[in-house]
Automatic annotation (TrEMBL), chain A:
Its EC number is 2.3.2.27. It is found in: Lysosome membrane. This is GATOR2 complex protein WDR24. Coiled coil: none annotated. The gene is WDR24.
From TrEMBL, chain B:
SUPFAM superfamilies: WD40 repeat-like. It comes from the Eukaryota. One of its GO terms (cellular component) is kinetochore. It comes from Trichechus manatus latirostris (Florida manatee). This is Nucleoporin SEH1. GO terms for molecular function: structural molecule activity. One of its GO terms (biological process) is positive regulation of TORC1 signaling. Residues 324-342 have a biased composition (Low complexity). Keywords: Cell cycle, Cell division, Centromere, Chromosome partition, Kinetochore, Lysosome, Mitosis, mRNA transport, Nuclear pore complex, Nucleus, Protein transport, Repeat, Translocation, Transport, WD repeat. WD repeats lie at residues 8-40, 274-306. InterPro entries: Sec13/Seh1_fam, WD40/YVTN_repeat-like_dom_sf, WD40_PAC1, WD40_repeat_dom_sf, WD40_rpt. Belongs to the WD repeat SEC13 family.
Length: 790, 360
């Protein structure tokens, strides 16, 4: 006995040392308790009762208290507690209802001291009085609590909870006479030790059994309780009515709860089933655990902070037959790994963004991530127990909307609505679509349509009706090329802007451009009457892009003959879009750092332009003069469609595919076509363009697509008069022989869109019903039904 | 230029995910406060919370919408080791009169023994399928055999990734040429440098998912991963949020060349890599056409990335979390977020002008 107290005094003033470690026990543990000296821990279970000393590197078994030959049920421990004033005194609660005390100072091997056999069923909990050396309290499954004076042979007083099963009893740390007990019916009772007749106070703390409670070590009125309802609640019991101060929601039923020393708002919990982890919560942030210990492989049954004034060492015993010491700094911190931001791109180009407020508020709020290599590891933020609480973390949610009508995808919707895909001659369709595209400022697409018209409807090949049409359109047939390119029309809008931009921009590229454009002008003048400054500049832009573009797009594209002739045409439109991009006003501020795309490409440009421009023109002449068959271009068109698809503009790919129909269909992989169709239809449906989507389905040539609107086309309706299911065809009921599709508002037979309520089968003209429902929610037929239309 | 519309979310803890529905008119948010909120866009563009309910008993990491063909259906996943499927109930009720809608839980998926970190519905053409991934490194794929019965889900596949998973993304391609494919990212921060992005592909013959590719170059913890919407492209684009933003292209090598039975081989190129967020990147999200990528990171900014006609990815916009545009030279990038149109953006800000070079 003397020896032991010396050890403890020697340790008393010292700082605890140790590491995260565990040791294997012979059997599952049910409970653990720490000695006052923080150097020993007792582990108790059904078939284990041992004392381990906690060394720096490991646990060392000190003493096995299960002695004797025949195993006694008295040794099957449900709970164990080590007296916090006397290192030699322990008490255990046995599953057979016996409370046993142990005196380690006994000289014999058997340290058993006293045996109290008063409870009739399992004793769930034993508790020593924190200040009284001889007072022991027990709570049992039989619903009674008993207070023992260790100097006497039997209990001093018995407290009846008037209910089933006591799950926990705890002496208040601050109030000498008070103890709390928790019950399976969800109640918590507060007792005065001097008044065994009835409890001082009772309140319902949880929905379902309350498995545990713990008094706050400093706050005299705070009691934490944990229950099967997965919640930990902190009660202030100083007020007349027990007040719930905090509520922590855990993910499984709470088996044990222990306040963390020196941290006013922290408590540790472990669960009774499912969850094997130990969590440390800050009760002010009730949703996310501050720390998590994941060492155990089975349910944790006992937790204890190693020293009442040291917040960093936690001991635990588990059903997986291990005893662990956890260091707080080794705990995983779910908060650190939790994603602080959410981001989602909307359909219309809007962005929803939620971010932790501290990240958004200031740049300085940035903290190094634990796994970030660029920040040395010693910068890792440790949870300092003394650190003031930063407050509840919260996020700011905002939606970034695109300005100007709020819809950045409006071009898509407009295009989809206005494109003509069938029902007219090809040339007209192309012209119409080109016009639509141009009006929406999508010049590249407009050019493509125009070129398609030229390719497939050149005078020699177009059927006479089509030819007439294209002539009638006002495009002089003699100069289809020039007209269709619309150089003039485009020039004022685009060319001038471009030049303005360029002249302000990078001077170096400017000179290059001017030089080459000069060359071009001369060429143009030689070849075509339309040649002027503006289109030349514009043309130059195209030339500039095409070389690069071609090789990127199609590196292994090998036309054995005249590759240059074909390819510039394809790349031609690209530059339109670039030219079209309105430059930001700030663009000039940092010309040095922001290489103008055209500028960066200037070197390449200066080498090529003359060649390409020649080829371009010669192509147009070849086209016009020699009247190449459209088949000549099919590979090109195919590549173009693929190009649009790869660029994310599947709309163009599908529209062209539909308009050209058989002319290109055979050249393109069937699967790819199907893919384009399904993608485009999906997009249209996202934008709720059901009519367009249906038209596309109808016009598609692919079998897999056209069967899309063949599925689930039957409707089952009831007759609006006799309420029986309509069996026959048409709108005349087979039973009452009356027309079922009468409008309930105007009493005429509805032709066309008929809308009806699925509840009462009454309905009518869409317009009439809509109007009616603005004023009333009852059925217009007067049947009293509250109609619903979704 | 963007206008920021700030929304008082009234979540009691961090918001971990935001998700738009198929038509972009509804939004769902989920938070550590264990709740999910649904927001509806009114005629004048305001967002109204029409439902808010407790979904889990732990932090809700992700929320995601099913295709509206299956109804108004949400899936959520949580720290409490479960994923749940929710359906909105249509009907005349008091809730509706107050402008509130009612959501009921259709199923709880309890197979994981650790935190479920992501949940995603499969592309519509695959039927009603759901993938989850969990911290113990298992991807689970569930299917509702009867789309009318949302309470019955069967676990179809369990794919072991060996690493703690943080995010998944389905390949959205509807092409028959592309087998179902799922990319998985891991946020495992243990020091051993293992590849953190794995791609699994469904094999018709074995009827199992098998690993098709591993992105060997990504060795830092990955927080988010997203396939770009595939609108008829023959190849796939994958964005990865790790300590920087990375964009990969995966070009399927022609089937004829490989042995027909095995997984598709891909030619993988990294086409862009940006560390402008200066620290961890938490989220990546593609616009609807797969042409603009938005990323958000520890710097509290959203950055927009777009490829020009050279396939050179550049920053086209920076948005501060509170909506104010970032001041300074980089601001010009904001001026034209020409989303979705295939206008190669002439401008580039000085952020990212050096990055994004093509290298494989």
């Amino acid at each position: 006995m003397e020896k032991m107290s010396r050890v403890s005094t020697a340790l008393g003033g010292n700082v605890l040392t140790g590491r995260t470690m565990h040791c294997h026990l012979d059997a599952p543990a049910n409970a653990i308790s720490v000695c006052r000296d923080a150097a020993q821990v007792v582990v108790a279970g059904r078939s284990i009762f041992k004392i381990y000393s906690i060394e720096d590197e490991q646990f060392v078994e000190k003493l096995n208290l299960r002695v004797g030959r025949k195993p006694s049920l008295n040794l099957s421990c449900a709970d164990v507690v080590w007296h916090q004033m006397d290192e030699n005194l322990l008490a255990t609660a046995a599953t057979n209802g016996v409370v046993v005390t142990w005196n380690l100072g006994r000289p014999s091997r058997n340290k058993q001291d006293q045996l109290f056999t008063e409870h009739k069923r399992t004793v769930n909990k034993v508790c020593f009085h924190p200040a009284e050396a001889h007072m022991l309290l027990s709570g049992s499954q039989d619903g009674f609590m008993k207070c023992f004076d260790l100097r006497r042979k039997d209990s001093v007083s018995t407290f009846s909870g008037q209910s089933e099963s006591v799950r926990d009893v705890q002496f208040s740390i601050r109030d000498y006479f008070t103890f709390a007990s928790t019950f399976e019916n969800g109640n918590v009772q507060l007792w005065d030790i001097r008044r065994p007749d009835r409890c001082e106070r009772m309140f319902t703390a949880h929905n379902g059994p309350v498995f545990c409670c713990d008094w706050h070590p400093e706050d005299r009125g705070w009691l934490a309780t944990g229950g099967r309802d997965k919640m930990v609640k902190v009660w202030d019991v100083t007020t007349p009515r027990a007040r719930e101060v905090h509520c922590v929601q855990t993910i499984a039923s709470v088996a044990r709860v222990k306040w963390r020393p020196e941290c006013r708002h922290h408590l540790a919990t472990c669960s009774m089933m499912v969850d094997h982890n130990i969590y440390v919560w800050d009760v002010r942030r009730p949703f996310v655990p501050a720390a998590m210990f994941e060492e155990h492989r089975d349910v944790t049954t006992g937790i204890a902070w190693r020293h009442p004034h040291d917040p960093s060492f936690l001991l635990s015993g588990s059903k997986d037959s291990t005893l662990c010491q956890h260091l707080f700094r080794d705990a995983s911190q779910p908060v650190e790994r939790a994603n602080p931001e959410g981001l989602c791109y909307g359909l219309f180009g809007d962005l929803a963004f939620a971010a932790k407020e501290s990240l958004v508020a200031s740049e300085s709020g940035r903290k190094p991530y634990a796994g970030d290599r660029r920040h040395p590891i010693f910068f890792k933020r440790k949870l300092d127990p003394a650190e003031p609480f930063a407050g509840l973390a919260s996020s700011a949610l905002s939606v970034f909307e695109t300005e100007a009508g709020g819809s950045c995808m409006s071009w898509f919707v407009d295009t989809a609505r206005r494109y003509a895909l069938a029902g007219r001659p090809l040339a007209e369709l192309c012209d119409h679509n080109a016009k639509v595209a141009r009006e929406l400022g999508r010049n590249q697409v407009a050019q493509t349509w125009t070129m398609l018209r030229i390719i497939y409807c050149s005078p020699g090949l177009v059927p006479s009706t089509n030819l007439n049409h294209s002539v009638g359109k006002g495009s002089s047939c003699g100069l289809p090329l020039i007209n269709s390119f619309n150089l003039k029309e485009m020039a004022p809008g685009l060319g001038s802007e471009t030049r303005l931009d360029r002249s302000k921009g990078d001077t170096r590229s400017d000179t290059v451009l001017l030089d080459s454009s000069a060359t071009l002008i001369t060429n143009e003048d030689n070849e075509e009457t339309e040649g002027s400054d503006v289109p030349a500049d514009y043309l130059l832009g195209d030339v500039e892009g095409d070389d690069e573009e071609l090789y990127l797009l199609d590196p292994d594209h090998t036309h054995p003959e005249e590759p240059e002739y074909v390819l510039p045409q394809e790349a031609f439109p690209l530059r339109h879009e670039i030219v079209d991009t309105p430059p930001g006003p700030e663009h000039l501020q940092d010309k040095a750092d922001s290489p103008h795309v055209s500028g960066s490409e200037a070197d390449a440009v200066s080498l090529a332009p003359v060649d390409s421009s020649f080829s371009l023109i010669s192509v147009s002449h070849t086209l016009y003069d020699n009247r190449l068959p459209p088949d000549f271009f099919s590979a090109l068109v195919r590549d173009m469609l693929r190009f649009y698809a790869e660029q994310g503009d599947v709309q163009m790919a599908v529209s062209v595919l539909i308009v050209l129909g058989e002319r290109v269909r055979k050249d393109i992989d069937e699967q790819a076509q199907e893919h384009w169709y399904t993608s485009y239809i999906d997009l249209l449906q996202r934008f709720r363009l059901w009519n367009v989507s249906n038209e596309v389905v109808k016009l598609s040539t692919s079998r897999a697509i056209s069967c899309l609107n063949q599925a689930s086309t039957s409707l089952h309706v009831n007759c609006s008069h006799c309420k029986r299911p309509m069996s026959g065809r048409g709108w005349v009921c087979g039973r009452c022989h009356r027309c079922a599709s009468m409008c309930a508002v105007c009493h005429h037979v509805v032709k066309g869109l008929f809308v009806w309520c699925q509840g009462c089968s009454h309905g009518g003209h869409l317009q009439h019903i809509m109007k009616w429902l603005e004023g009333s929610s009852h059925c217009p037929a007067g049947c009293g039904h509250l109609c619903e239309y979704s | 230029m963007f206008v920021a519309r700030s929304i008082a979310a009234d979540h009691k803890d961090l918001i971990h995910d935001v998700s738009f529905d198929f038509h972009g008119r509804r939004m769902a948010t989920c938070s550590s406060d264990q709740s999910v909120k649904v927001w509806d866009k009114s005629e004048n563009g305001d967002w109204h919370c029409t439902a808010s309910w407790k979904t889990h008993s732990g932090s809700v990491w992700r929320v995601t919408w099913a295709h509206p063909e299956f109804g108004q259906v949400l899936a959520s996943c949580s720290f409490d080791r479960t994923a749940a499927v929710w359906e909105e109930i249509v009907g005349e009720s008091n809730d509706k009169l107050r402008g509130q809608s009612h959501w009921v839980k259709r199923t709880t998926l309890v197979d994981s023994r650790t935190s479920v970190t992501d949940v995603k519905f499969a592309p519509k053409h695959m039927g009603l399928m759901l993938a989850t991934c969990s911290a113990d490194g298992i991807v689970r794929i569930y299917e509702a055999p009867d789309v009318m019965n949302l309470s019955q889900w069967s676990l179809q596949h369990e794919i072991s990734c060996k690493l703690s998973c943080s995010c998944i993304s389905w390949n959205p391609s509807s092409s028959r040429a592309h087998s179902p494919m799922i990319a998985v990212g891991s946020d495992d921060s243990s020091p051993n440098a293992m590849a953190k992005v794995q791609i699994f592909e469904y094999n018709e013959n074995t009827r199992k998912y098998a690993k098709a590719e591993t992105l060997m170059t990504v060795t830092d913890p990955v927080h988010d991963i997203a396939f770009a919407p595939n609108l008829g492209r023959s190849f796939h684009i994958l964005a990865v949020a790790t300590k920087d933003v990375r964009i990969f292209t995966l070009k399927p090598v022609r089937k004829e060349l490989t042995s027909s039975g095995g997984p598709t081989k891909f030619e993988i190129h990294i086409v862009a890599q940006f560390d402008n967020h200066n620290s961890q990147v938490w989220r990546v999200s593609w616009n609807i056409t797969g042409t603009v990528l938005a990323s958000s990171g520890d710097d509290g900014c959203v950055r927009l990335w777009k490829a020009n006609y050279m396939d050179n990815w550049k920053c086209t916009g920076i948005l501060k979390g509170n909506g104010s545009p970032v001041s300074g030279n980089s601001q010009q990038g904001n001026s034209n977020p020409s989303l979705g149109s295939n206008i190669p953006n002439l401008q580039n800000s000085l952020n990212g002008s050096s990055a994004g070079r093509k290298h494989s």
